[in-house]
Design goal:
Spore Coat Polysaccharide Biosynthesis Protein SpsA, Chain A; two-stranded antiparallel sheet
Length: 252
């Protein structure tokens, strides 16, 4: 049986971290948490649950996650976030996979489903995103970018049937906090790459994005959570452009 290291990065995740760790504790021989100097009980909770905890100042999602991968004891890595939960079906699937005499794949894609305002969303573009999160670190690793990091591997990639539930937003206020943070990072990236937008695009982007999420991608089928997801998703799309225009004007 191949050993797996579960790696998690965290910052002030005392509300979520126990649920996350409990979902993988039967799977891995090591759970490694890289804590970004949390000011709450995150590190304490992790240690009490038997995790190895390393404290490190946060310097970007890609670099922080790759640091965690590099510190792990085993080559096979399952990377999950503190607000994610491995479902029992996925847990059993990974156990069966690693009970095989050998594994020829370089990595595995996993389905991520968003739980939003108490409902698992199936529509609006949030239903089923697949990402490589289980991989052999000798054949790949994280892209070292500040946001929207990913895993790239050299070799065959297969897709698993089980899913991870993503509890990304505690409530609407938390969603707005994240929108403010990520739109700033996205706008900074636009400016660094020299991308320019006309101001009219800020006005047009909101209704176009809302119609895409709510109508074209059937967000209305997810009820009220689907409406709020579509509304705030469109707000995000428009706001990151507005911020990039503001940053470019401030530079002049």
């Amino acid at each position: 049986m191949t050993d797996i290291s579960v790696v998690i990065i965290a910052f002030n995740e005392e509300r979520n971290i126990s649920r996350c760790i409990d979902s993988v504790k039967e799977l891995a021989s090591e759970i490694l948490v890289v804590d970004s100097l949390s000011t709450d009980r995150t590190a304490e909770i992790c240690r009490n649950l038997g995790c190895r905890v390393i404290s490190r100042e946060f310097d970007g999602y890609g670099t922080q996650k790759q640091f965690a991968v590099d510190q792990a004891s085993h080559n096979w890595i399952l990377s999950i976030d503190a607000d994610e939960v491995v479902t029992p079906d996925l847990l059993d699937e990974i156990k069966s996979l690693f009970a095989r005499p050998s594994i020829h794949e370089a990595g595995f894609e996993i389905c991520f489903s968003l739980v939003y305002l108490g409902r698992k969303l199936k529509y609006g573009g949030a239903g089923s995103d697949y990402h490589i999160r289980l991989f052999n670190r000798t054949l790949g690793g994280f892209t070292k970018v500040k946001v929207h990091e990913g895993i790239k591997v050299t070799g065959k990639v297969a897709r698993l049937r089980g899913e991870v539930l993503h509890y990304s937003y505690r409530d609407l206020a938390h969603h707005l906090e994240k929108i403010n943070y990520y739109t700033t990072r996205a706008a900074e990236s636009y400016v660094q790459r020299g991308k320019h937008f006309p101001k009219i695009w800020v006005i047009l982007k909101f209704p176009i994005s809302f119609l895409q999420f709510y109508c074209c991608k059937a967000g209305f089928l997810d009820g009220y959570p689907g409406f709020m997801w579509s509304f705030l998703g469109a707000f995000y799309a428009s706001l990151k452009i507005a911020k990039s225009i503001e940053m470019q004007e401030e530079r002049r």
